[in-house]
Specification:
The complex is a heterotrimer of chains A (272), B (309) and C (450). With 309 residues, chain B is mostly helical. Chain B is built from 13 helices and no strands. The radius of gyration of chain B is 24 Å and the shape is globular. Chain C has 450 residues and is α/β, with parallel strands linked by helices. Chain C is built from 19 helices and 9 strands. In chain C, helix 1 packs parallel to helix 17, helix 11 crosses helix 12 and helix 18 runs antiparallel to helix 19. Chain C is globular and about 65 Å long. The chains are: A mainly alpha (272), B mainly alpha (309), C alpha/beta (450). Chains in contact: A-B, A-C, B-C. Chains B and C meet through loops of B and helix 5 and helix 18 of C.
Chain lengths: 272, 309, 450
Amino acid sequence: MKRLATKLGFYASLFVLVSPAVLVFLWMISLSFKNELDNTAFPPVFIPDPPTLKNYVDVFAQNNFALYLWNSVLVTGGAVLIGLAVGVPAGYGIARGKATKFAILILVARMTPALSYLIPLFLLFQMTGLVGTITALVITHLVITIPIIVWIMIGYFENIPMELEDAARIDGASSWQAFRHVALPLAMPGVTVGGILAFIFSWNNFIFSVVLGGKNSRTLPSAVYNSLTFEQISWGPLAAAALLVTLPVLLVTVLAQRQIVAGLSAGGLKDG
Amino acid sequence: MTTTILPAELAERAQPAPFTHSADFTPRYWLFAAPAVLVVAGVIVFPWLFTLYMSTQDWKIGGGPEFVGLQNFAELFRDTRFIESMGHTLYFTVLAVVLPILFGTAAALVFHREFPFRGVLRTVFVMPMMATPVAVALVWTMMFHPQLGVLNYLLSLVGIGPQNWVYSPDTVIPTLILVEVWHWTPLVMLIVLGGLAGLPREPYESALIDGANDWHMFRHITLPLVWPFIMVAIVIRTIDALKAFDTIFVITQGGPGTASETLNIFLYLQAFQFYKIGYASAVVVIFFVIVIMLSLLLLYARQKSKWNA
Amino acid sequence: MSETILKPTRRALLRGATALGAAGAIGSPLVLRESHAQAAFNWKRFSGTTIDVLLVKNPRSDLMQAAEKEFTELTGIKVSSEQVPEQQQRQKAVIEFASGKPSFDVSGISLHVQKRMAAKGKWFEDLTPFIKDASLTAPEFDFADFGAGPVAYARQADGSLDTIPFFVDYWMVYYNKELFAAKGVEYPKTMDEMATVAAKLHDPAKGIAGFVSRGLKNANVPVWASLLLGQGIETTSTEGKLQTDTPEAVWAGELYKKLNKDSGPAGQVGFNWNECQTSFMQGRAAMWLDGIGFATPLEDPSKSRIVGKVGYGITPPGPKAHHAGMFADGMGISRGSQKKQAAWLYLQFVTNKANQLAMLKAGAGAPGRASAYLDTNTIAQSKFGKQYFDCLLGSAKVARAALPQIVPVTEFRDVFGVALTNALGGADVAAELKKATETFAPVLVKSEQG
């Protein structure tokens, strides 16, 4: 009997823990499939009846949604790829060279609010005429991607025993070859984790694009904030757009949840 | 994969080389970091230095800089709005640290057990921290609407009267903390879960033999062992709570009035609504000092977690 | 609305047009699409060019975007435009103009917020040479048709005209006739009476507020400033001195507090015009004080629950004066643009007689042109009834600028907005206004030096 009670208590607490997450997402979905009058009805209408796709059609028809999506792909993709190209070797160099000071610098960079980079970078882009370009956004997003990738890679390279590389070196491999053919393949899980987390944090960032993005370079999150917001009572399209923006990230989370859990318990840091 | 290794410990954890590294090997590792050094110097260190320079200037967007020394800082500490924003930040930070730590630790204990669909449920639980903050903030805003929001309806079902949520100066910060808790409890859960995964079995076995109950085992065995991880989580939460911007900005923009104007929002308004570059830079500098101090604390906490583990 | 189309009398319209300063441009009814009929003027000179346009998100910009196709057919110029919500658009304008290379050739601005800033930052090109150049300006554009009031409002201190004042907004009171009838109350005759009427209509148990207006900081300042006009003064004197802590300003602040706190909806401190509009459209507010340019969705059955029940009232007189708070938007050509002439063709087109009339007809606000008000036939077909047009023209007659013509308008609105929000939270109005005035005074002095 007592065991049953314990079990019930356990499942009750599990329910309490998981339901807020579920409810918010379900409400988002519900809003996005209802018409305007139902969305602002009180008491609220929970199940869309009949469900309408109009909100989604509106989002695509009234906004350059496809363009913003493409911009997000370019900005996040560019920042993650450059971040990996630069950050993975750096992680290796720092781990093997025991460059503690540089590691601390990266840590502080990781901790600094993204917002504080905005003013100097804005002035810099203003001087160079880059305000409103994709290039400017890719550069600012490096502020997000590089520290997280370097940070995670240091940890992974740390855990790869030195002996294998040393053996390769004795066989005449250069240090680049030892990195490329010995250490890197072993650290591939770290590259995946770093890449995924950098992708998510860069995708989710919006304030850089709100300030620095132009009409043709705006990313998806800032477009949702910037061109939809609460004009009139367009809750339906707003919810639809919000869902579309966060969908890629949620899909990645579901598909790569194992890596994300590993990476976050290891890196333990989010971006801001 | 040993996931609890934290990079900052690398200097200490690095295995002593099994045989002598000739001295000329070591400098070459720097070459691997060289591109990153360049990029970091350009997009991270340069902005820091530039901000420091700007904080000593009277500079508005569209105009030019004019040196004013420390006047911006002096003015800041006379600016009641700045002082108030520090207060709001403190209030927000304390609750946005304590609550996720409590819930996150509890959640970690739950998810540490074996039960059906654990993987799926854990993914669902982690989703809020991955979701795009702007998107989620917009949905919360709709839910908080005092007349038409779903939350007031749900409250009315259990007999609680309508709340004003973010539409009242008294409840705005607790409401924003609700969002913050929803968002970031999963992160605490993951960190503590990582700690639980590495716990030894023996103390529990001997305690069971001694007839200890669940609470005793938690209080006297589990908690001391995972405490270092909780410490890490506390410091990380503190820094993240200080940095909180996206959701506050989208939901309230610091309002009503200035009731939820935190340092970050104050900074943004000064820079991009009033276009006072110099003044805003001074805020960044103060912010930066706080962050560095907390980062050092984090390093210290990680050291501790290594010693105790 | 039960589609009873009430025709505004021609005389009322003429009066209104005169009030707008129509300088004898009263002539034969407009011929729509007259631009096509003109062969003499070469619209195709810049065919193949693409221009970028930055618009504020509102019903007027919807109309402009809808007219783009026709413009491209006429000129061969392609238009790439986007609508950005007001607050973000204002920020974007500052940032992009400061960069010297704005990404748009044409931009709209709120004259009541950014006029002085635009002059100081040299955002826009002076349009006077374009208007005078017969090779660039079609004869039917007829600049003299624009009301003297709006043109004077747009003209900068140095005499240049850097924007075309295409839209004027008057503050008035939307009211729900059904709720008024149910309680048997009449539309208030004075500002003070507004408060007593609102109290009678207020019924929180049914979820109905007697009055709604903006409570959100920054957005709420025009409400207070409009009430202040009832005392016959503005927030600054003609010499540019702040009058924000005078007994008159405190009176307006107290009235603002009374209206919103005692008979407003819960949570109104977070309301901008769109929340007010939603509440009103849902039939949950009896009165709504705001700009007449926000009327469009009220008579749209897919959005509004009160179609046909909306009353449009002129802002009631205050103790000393009767004014309607006036705001205006202008459109100009970026000084940094490489396509100024093509941009001018666009500007001419979107502010031509037909498009200005379309704006009036759609309930999207008061056009800057006088001729729009003279086309009784088109107006008669509008789904907005006689009362709407009477209110519009009546407001025009008593219009007065409500916001100060200073550079840091955003900061002004922010500082006093906080004071008003605090007042709604229970703080003492006089003390809050005094504090805000002390905070803002040095900012104003500094902005006038720079």
